[in-house]
Amino acid sequence: MAMNNQAPAALVENQESTSLFSSLVSFFVPTAHAEAPEESEEPAEEGGEDSEEKDEEEEEEEEEEPEDPAPAIREECEQKTCAEHVHHFKHCQEKVEAGNGFPGEDCVEEFFHVLHCVDQCAAPKIFKKLA
Amino acid sequence: MLSSAFPRLVSRVGAGVKPLSKARFSSSTSSSTQTPFLASKTAIASSTLLAGGSLVWYNHLYGLGSLLPEASANSAAENGMHPTKMPFEHYGPFETFNHASIRRGYQVYREVCSACHSLDRIAWRNLVGVSHTVDEAKAMAEEVEYTDGPNDEGEMFQRPGKLADYMPAPYPNEEAARAGNGGGLPPDLSLIVKARHGAADYIYSLLTGYCDPPAGVKLADGMNYNPYFPGGGIAMARVLFDGLVEYDDGTPATTSQMAKDVTVFLNWAAEPEHDQRKKMGLQALIILSTLTAISLYVKRFKWSYLKTRKIVYDPPKPARHGPL
After folding, report:
1. What superfamily does domain B99-122+166-270 belong to in CATH?
2. ipTM of the complex model
3. Which residues of B make CB contacts under 8 Å with A?
């Protein structure tokens, strides 16, 4: 049921995305065509591909469709609110990875400080975007 | 020697009992020139020997390690990252669960978690009126085969599930579960929200918290790093990825969304009385506040006579001078 309902929408998006992709490609790789026959061929090709790989592509598209808001929000928090903690964490990482720390040293505590800060900053923002 | 240690005591006792006092008296006279026993070298040597000997004997029996409290350094890593309080909808004092979220969370549990985790204490009937209709719950139950019996011939038989049946477990027993998961036992999720420090916040943080270990952290074989898990090394790998399930209601199934939904579902599973409890809280508030208001009013009413009375002192008229 759900598949049937969402199929048309996915198809539309599919077409949009392919046209967007082709426009992107044509932006980077400009090609000059002798107008009429080439253009008439291209859409036909695309249509054929679509019909062949329709099912697979639909599933792929639908699965990759939702994008988690969390990573972007957390990234922003890391850069703005928690810059100080991140600085200390990076310092520790460099030190330990270079082998300059005392034996058995790890950066867990520094990492937890970063996490604590980022969680506090990001939690309300993420939950605002969730249903 | 007692008399030399406590001469006054002995002399007092001796005053009552004649023959004993004589004997004591004579002995004390004989030892009066010696030092008291407790101050003697023999006493010191023997008590030292006793102390040392008991220590050696204890060590022989139990080992000295048990004499001292066990040394334990609870580092931040060993405790695990404390989860931040998440703004779940049901956290307010009068807020109910988000039931659309419970329904989606059940779907995530069914399609993802139930591959390894059981949900022993939840029956199909529990879902009715919470996340699913009766017919939906019945249909879901019928998809599962349950062993029932014995029948008239004394044999067990398979039948489709009904509402009263409990959720099927992925493994028949603990050993099978451990064998299937590299030695780690996936805990039953019925009460997991109540069973973990940080409750729902912890579950959400754990599900979304998988990341690369910081420098210097060594993980055992087959372990994954999760800062929220005490110790950091968790046998369960990250399972939630964007678009893993497809929600009926069209909600985009992002990692965060699925983690939130399944957390709300598990919170409901652990506290199915939650909504009713908060409703009763409000009812109790109504009753108690009404009774308080009534009692205050009645008190004022009853006391109004006393509070509004006027006490007037009417002094007697001064006696007239002169003869009556």
Report:
1. Cytochrome c-like domain (1.10.760.10)
2. 0.71
3. 75-77, 81-88, 100-101, 104, 205, 208-209, 214-217, 227, 232, 242-244, 246, 248, 250-257, 260
Question: How many CA atoms lie less than 13 Å away from B119 in the CB half-sphere?
Answer: 24
**Tokens at B148, concatenated:** 């029932």
Name chain B contacts of A70, Cβ cutoff 8 Å: 208, 254-256
Structure tokens at B307: 């509070």
- Residue B187 Cα distances to A107, A129, B32, B195, angstroms: 30, 30, 78, 10
Chain A residue with Cα closest to B209: A115
Is position B236 annotated in a ligand binding site?
Answer: yes
pLDDT one-digit tens code per residue, B150-208: 999 999 999 999 999 999 999 999 999 999 998 999 999 999 999 999 999 999 999 99
Q: Pick from B238, B280, B276, B268: which is nearest to B255 by CA?
A: B238
CATH architecture label of A70-130: Orthogonal Bundle (1.10)
The 10s digit of each residue's pLDDT in A73-107 is: 999 999 999 999 999 999 999 999 999 988 888 99
Cβ pair A37, A43 in contact under 8 A: no
Q: How many C-beta atoms surround the C-beta of residue A66 within 10 A?
A: 20
Does the distance separating the beta carbons of B255 and A70 come in below 8 Å? yes
Start-end of H helices in B166-316: 174-180, 192-195, 199-208, 255-270, 274-308
Query: How far apart are alpha carbons A9 and A26 in whole angstroms?
Result: 26
- Pair B192, B266: CB distance under 8 Å: yes
Residue type, B31: S
